[in-house]
Write a structure and sequence with these properties.
The longest helix is centred in the C-terminal third of the chain and has 17 residues. Helix 1 packs across helix 2, helix 1 packs across helix 3 and helix 1 packs across helix 6. This protein has one domain: Winged helix-like DNA-binding domain superfamily/Winged helix DNA-binding domain (Arc Repressor Mutant, subunit A, Orthogonal Bundle). It has six helices and two strands, in the order αααββααα. The radius of gyration is 19 Å and the shape is globular. A two-stranded antiparallel sheet has the order 1-2. It has about 160 residues and is mainly alpha-helical.
Amino acid sequence: MFQISRRADYAVRIMIELGLQEEKCVPSREISRRTKVSKAFLHKITADLVKADLIQTQSGPKGGLRLNHPLTQINLQQILEAVEGPICLNICLIRPQECERDAICPAHDFWGRLQTSIVAQLQAATLAELISEAHELKNQPRRRDHVPYLIHRADIGVIKQ
């Protein structure tokens, strides 16, 4: 199945939680509790986010984690690439002539267009937009029948693991 990793999902959760706290320094135990990310996994992910300059750590009694940039300057591509590396749908898109079939493969251009579209969407999705939506959802959560699921409970038995 084509999907983002748990690590990427958790990184986005962590960044949203930090964004909700604005400029406050948030203890990692509090982030772990609110995001449901184990402390051990949280530390691994936040190390990657620090390395990517998206967040900073502060030690001491009032220490914790905080965003390193304004909400409008952080996008989903930056977050995902911080924990997963460059976004690449297929090995053939990494370098020209990486795949000997580039010139004759009918799918090559499609993969390139799809990757370009996905990257553009990730670049356009800022943390500010996600924080705004989080505030809206806190005030008025979606009804379960309006959540955009592609797979419904009745279809679960059909999916191969």
